[in-house]
Design brief:
The chain is built from 3 helices and 2 strands; from the N terminus they run ααββα. The protein is an alpha+beta fold. It has a two-stranded antiparallel sheet.
């Protein structure tokens, strides 16, 4: 598992991941894309909480849809 940050290496690296730990360790900034739409760009501390909130809301909506009854 890499432990050096891209800023330490003076390089730009593109990482595509859903692993929050990896993103927290390796990234200073995150571009969040959902279904081809740019949702948010900012620091890791700004974007990850918004992403997690979005995902939790989506899971809640999916659970409601799974529990829905149609007459």
């Amino acid at each position: 598992f890499p432990t050096r940050r891209s800023s330490d290496l003076d390089r730009t690296v593109v990482i595509v991941s859903h692993n929050m730990n990896t993103l927290e360790v390796l990234c200073d900034h995150i571009l969040w894309i959902n279904d081809g739409d740019m949702m948010m760009y900012g620091t890791t501390r700004e974007v990850l909480p918004a992403y997690n909130e979005f995902m939790e809301a989506g899971i809640a909506e999916d659970e409601q849809a799974d529990n829905a009854v149609i007459f």
